[in-house]
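testing teh design pipeline on a random one, pls ignore if ur not involved
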């Protein structure tokens, strides 16, 4: 689930790096993750989350809470980036 938030961030980061003149090899990580994390998310769900929750449905609550905590931390991180770089 969280992995699905990564492709958009990676794509925007790659665009910013392209805009400031970084080469393809310098942007490679972000260009790749803009695509790869979609499959990674699907695999993570299919191979880890679904089987674990099927084995014990009580795990779903803890996983969902962890995902929300991760998203909140990410939001705080990007708010800090915006403040630091004067992006509003």
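output:
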């Amino acid at each position: 689930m969280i992995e699905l938030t990564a492709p958009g961030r990676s794509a925007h980061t790659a665009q910013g790096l392209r805009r400031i003149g970084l080469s393809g090899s310098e942007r490679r990580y972000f260009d790749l993750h803009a695509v790869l994390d979609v499959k990674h998310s699907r695999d993570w769900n299919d191979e880890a989350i679904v089987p674990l929750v099927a084995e014990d449905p009580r795990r779903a609550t803890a996983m969902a809470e962890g995902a929300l905590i991760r998203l909140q931390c990410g939001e705080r991180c990007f708010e800090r980036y915006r403040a630091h770089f004067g992006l509003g």
